[in-house]
Design goal:
alpha/beta, Rossmann fold, 6-stranded parallel sheet, two-stranded antiparallel sheet, disordered C terminus, thymidine kinase activity, DNA synthesis, kinase
Length: 213
Amino acid sequence: MASSGEVHVIMGPMFAGKTTSLLRRVKSESNNGRNVAMIKSSKDTRYAIDSVVTHDGAKFPCWVLPDLSSFRQKFGEEAYEKLDVIGIDEAQFFDDLYDFCSQVADHDGKTIILAGLDGDYLRRSFGSVLDVIPLADTVTKLTARCEMCGKRAFFTLRKSDDKETELIGGADLYMPVCRQHYVNGQVAVETARSVVEAHKIKSEGSTEVASVV
């Protein structure tokens, strides 16, 4: 029977250094002689296809997968048996995160270190990251710096008026903010959206009048 594994969760808003912390811990495990592997979602193609990359450019080779359940088969049974530590970046994109962590830590005896967003741009639970907390040995909540005032930032503000939950982007679409500027920012975004819609309706109305004339 395999020895008991571990689950370590690193979470927080965008630009909080989650991937940097993940890479640091995985590299430390590797330097201590443990066999490691890194996984990221195939949805994340922002910086590199075959590497986990931090916002400041640090890289680590990884397996790019649409789901976690396929990892063992693709990694190879013999190699998997020798594996000690699995790092998972952008964990919120994996729907099977809970089941994978439960199987790998509880039954396969491996250590999982995962990093992901705990909430989306609406401050609602994003993916399964929060579901894994009851399985976790440790949970680390990181913060960023508010882009508006420099205070600690706990939330991610979307700059655009797109409404889908999964909209992958960087500083072009998102910024870390404190509570005050999250609330103020949401008001600003909603106001801008209303103005755009009003202009759109007015423009469409003018077009219809012109067509009738």
